[in-house]
What does this fold into?
Amino acid sequence: MNNIGRTIYKNGNVLYWFILLFIPFGLFFYKVTGFEAYDEVALVTLFVYVLLTTKKYQKEVLVCGLIFLFYIVYSIYLGINIPKACFLDMLQQIKPYMAFYSAYSLFAVIKPSKYRKIRRYVLVFSVFLAILLIIRATTGFGSVLIVGHPTFAATCSFIFALIYLLFSDQRKKDVYIALIIMSFGLLSTRSKFYGDYIVFVFLFFFLKRKISFNVKFVVIFTVLISIMVYFAWEKLNFYYIEGIDNTNIIRSLLVRKTPEIMNDYFPFGTGFASFGNITSGTYFSPIYHQYGFDQIRAYGGFREGHVFFLGDTFIPNLAQYGYFGLFLLIWFWYRRWREIKRIKNFVVYRISIFVFFVIIIENLADTMYMSNRGMMLFILLGIILNPNSEYNKFMSYEGYEHGKCPNNGISNRK
It folds into this structure.
């Protein structure tokens, strides 16, 4: 084995152990251990390793670093919150991009011989998760005691399904096993998860070729969205339609004030630690007084030292970046979409599309984007889209032709 081979497999071992350790400590036992800084510690460790071992970075990685440098300087200059709060919030905001670019930049391949170990490991935790969710469904206890809120348990189920499928032989039975793992999440009774589940079933059992924006796709996409809205209607209606003008519903008020703040602080927003996240509540931002949040009377009132629901949705965070930040967010995901379209392995293509849609669905009423759960999704996406494609099996498929895989992109091997 030459030096390049040794390097890529050594780096692959780093990712291998990152995944194996993150499943219990960063996901499954994340709440019960009391060490909720594990995801940050693990991410910083991986990021430092990448910095020390990677000689050449993608230009996009450097641009991302400069953007966050600009926003921290801008936030301190604007002075809405104290510098300490701005730095703490920046560390939260940058997490998903550090995770993605760490896996995206690392010159690494996980040895195929380790795939079976990853799958067995995931299956053990999946069975344990299923038992907890069944106990919860029948007694009201179970998943909450170990995994935390039912939403976290539901998210674990589809992350486990994705990891299993990504590191499998991607045969028919592997897709069905992933579906079974995913199905455990239905016991959480989370409406957002129903949307995730519908997308998964559509992608892996009905999508026959790569997505192209034609009339047929628009019709199918409209039907799919309608079904998802049907299952999530109660919450969508409560927070974003009938409840949008209710000043006592904090999520609705946060969303409603976001475009107003973006207009008032055009084009760069209010800066870090100023609105829509836990840091802006811990170090109470004057923006809340400025936009009437102290008028909220529900839950004993919204005021300094008594804040709530600030970490429940991602959308208000956009007020901190303004229209310029919104453009950058769209640009980031537009680049990912273009890279996803180039994936030749059709099963992995669908995994990537699923991650893309899940991040959209989940962040309507969650901050998974910046959480430990979102971090794992960004790591997986970075592994898949790693531009070192000549070493990346996820970017190739020998039987792929003209945007369509034989047998729906699933291997016929037994």
